[in-house]
Design a protein that fits this description.
By secondary structure, the chain is mainly β. The protein has one domain. The protein has three helices and eleven strands, in the order ββββββββββαβαα. Strands 1-3-5-7-8-9-11-10 form an eight-stranded mixed β-sheet. The longest helix is centred in the last third of the chain and has 4 residues.
Amino acid sequence: MKVADNILAGIEFSLTGEMIGEYSQINGALIIGRSNNTDYILDVMSPHGIITSRQENFYIKNVHFYNFDWNNAAALGTCSHCFHDAATDEGARTITTSGFYFDSTVPRRIRYQTPFKAIFKDLDGSLTDLGANSWATFYYKSHLWEGECTRDEDVYNGVICNSNVELRTIKFSTYTPSGLFDGMGLKVLPYDDSIIGSMNSTQL
């Protein structure tokens, strides 16, 4: 596919149908955010090159991005049609990527969308520049592992991590009492004795 001058997204892929393997994918695309032949309306917008699926097992390969250097435009967005919290589930879908090329006119590679929990697994380092099997996700304190992950809001709108860590979604089902945890955001922090034992009452 070759796409240019789209107000919302060059390519948007909503549902994978829970297909296993690499059946649901974008493979080989040229995506131009803004060309010299664009309409004036685009000048006030902040589109994405690709908005990813809201289901698992979605792959993006061999894509070239150009001219996303205005407003808050970005090469990648997340969770198609997840416009507000009530329109989606817990999120944290994993998108697998490889073979990306970002021109110098693409200062923002990722701009996350509701529910701000997507995970990118970078097979070859072409998304994160951190080598094979690296990661990108939205920033939460639990994601910032010292020496392994770096926060970069300008380019990645979150954190990028090397292959020494793995990012995975955590899901609970059939929990009781159900009313106690319905709609509650899950936050995970290290809770080792060595960490808790060194905290004062204010830190705890």
